[in-house]
Amino acid sequence: MPVKKRYPVPSDIDIAQEAELLPIAEVAKKAGILDDELMPFGRYMAKVEYAKVLKRLKDKPNGKIITVTAMTPTPLGEGKTVTAFGLGQALAQKKLNVINAFREPSKGPTFGIKGGAAGGGYSQALPMENINLMFTGDIPAVETAHNLCAAAIDASILHGKTPGDPHRNPLYIDPMNITWTYCVDVNARALRDVMVGLGGIENGYPRLAHYDITVATETAAILALTTSLADLRKRLGRIVIGYTYDNKPVTAEQLGVAGAMTAVLVDAIKPNLVQSTEGHPMLCHGFPFANVAHGNNSIMADLVALKLADYMVTENGFGVECGYIKFCEVVCREAKWAGIDMWPDCCVIVATIRGLKHHGGTVHLAPGQPYSQVKKAFETENLPAVEKGCENLARNIEIAKMTGVPVVVAINRFITDTDKEVELVRKKALEAGANGAAPCENWAKGGEGATELADEVLKALKVPKKRQELYEDETPIREKIELFATKVFLADGVAYTPEAERRLKLFEELDFRADGKQLTVNVAKTHLSLAHDRTMLGVPRNYKLPVRDIRASAGAGFYYPLCGVFPTMPGLPTKPAFLPVDVDVETGKIKGLF
């Protein structure tokens, strides 16, 4: 049964631990999942046998896809996940058949700056502690598979080396041109660049290696983009781990490690079933970052939800130009190549008054800066700043409308937001072309706090959509990057560093393919600006998009240009979120997680 609401609103973990969770079998029954399609993982979590579900429901029409993304956020985030959960709860309260799909939280943000990522207040995914920590082991499985490949590279170089001739390894791998990383799912800045193979010949060939946070790896992207076990095996086999001395790609298949990687991930590709604080079904699966990777939950979770439910609510990482565009241009495009018809039916953009003030010039919140330093400015009525910040919201609406989909703005309302501010945002959103706009207070009220938003979304779903992709499948890579720069980011063009230009020419010569198709493009950049530089707020113009490097994720199926300077391995702040986390040794309950 739903948790009983209390005011003032308690902490997230208190709400989560007060909830009376439904047994996972009951949640499965609500979702339409049969007993033999469920793999219980304790009392309140389970994996779903996706192959059985999809085979049984292969002739059933897909449900509607509702995506929830956001305006360009502040470092605090604007409540995209909690809004997505509240919208799902509101639709469920209307007795509609709805399933939420969302990404698994990484321990990087959980123990870093943001804390947990399973919603908040009375719109959470439960059991919150499990989801935020080790869950069903998907992230550790990806970490193991990824590091197994990395270890295989060093072993291949070591065991084939002839004394006095470092070039003589079985695959002729150039140790100075290895692109595959090691990984760990915590913020460990000291591991960004490391020397491995020190201590003598038995320890391997000395070389500079790199670590990524696990959720930013190609293996994580592959898990989230795969459409079947056979597809997973194929993707892992075509991973490019580096290059030979004569610049020929070396694959995981050539290393002989792709089969073992598949074995490690055979259960990890199955979506995870959980529930909301109001007991409606949710699928939590996949975890790629949206500024580096493609920022969406797994296609597997999408496929299962679309067959089981009439409405699937999914969330796209960070802003419209990040996760939402990547949902369309990476997720939906690669699904299309697998013969799967996916495209959003409605795009919900979350906005906050504080986010609009941030982009409107009142005050800028920098990463790691204590909220107390800007609290007064963010919580004082300032209509001119809100109106100025609405330029960013309007541009995000414009980008979303480029995909041929109706748009609804969700104003995630905080207690300090005034009626005048909220009404101004609603007015500006409609003027900018949104099909609807509504405030939501589901953090404090659960599904009933998102009823008005649900009504606006249901109205928008009656507007016909038209699939409008940014580029044709066979558009050359250079032209694809140019289109992202000019059409999405409003840059005047692209400026490549010599290293990026060298890589680009190599990729043009190699012409990597995924199932015969040109690889898509997944732009890696800051999520705190519509441009490449987090200090460029509002709607940046009159600049060239700098591309400092380009990498090929041949297994995942995309190139990713690195725009601007940002790490693929985050670091811990001065006061990390893990400090209050502990365990009550009498009860075994986790505390301090938020």
Total strands: 26
Beta-sheet strand percentage?
15-25%
- Terminus-to-terminus distance: 22 Å
Structural class: alpha/beta
CATH class descriptor name of the largest domain: Alpha Beta
How does the major sheet shape up? 12 strands, mixed
| Separate helix tally | 21
Q: Give the % helix.
A: 25-40%
> According to CATH, what is the topology of the largest domain?
Rossmann fold
Pick out its properties.
26 strands; Rossmann fold; 594 residues
Question: How is the secondary structure organized here?
Answer:
Blueprint: H1 12-18, H2 24-31, E1 38-40, E2 46-48, H3 50-56, E3 64-70, H4 80-93, E4 98-102, H5 107-111, E5 119-120, E6 123-126, H6 128-132, H7 138-159, E7 173-178, E8 182-184, E9 193-196, E10 207-213, H8 218-225, H9 229-237, E11 240-244, E12 249-251, H10 252-255, H11 258-265, E13 272-276, E14 281-284, H12 299-308, E15 311-319, H13 320-337, E16 346-351, H14 353-359, H15 375-378, H16 383-401, E17 407-412, H17 419-431, E18 436-440, H18 442-445, H19 451-460, H20 477-488, E19 494-496, H21 498-510, E20 513-514, E21 517-518, E22 520-521, E23 545-553, E24 558-563, E25 582-583, E26 590-591
Parallel strand pairs: 3-15, 3-16, 4-14, 4-15, 8-10, 16-17, 17-18, 19-23, 22-24
Antiparallel strand pairs: 1-2, 2-13, 5-6, 6-13, 7-11, 9-10, 11-12, 13-14, 20-21, 23-24, 25-26
Helix pairs in contact: 7-8, 7-11, 9-11, 13-16, 14-16, 16-17
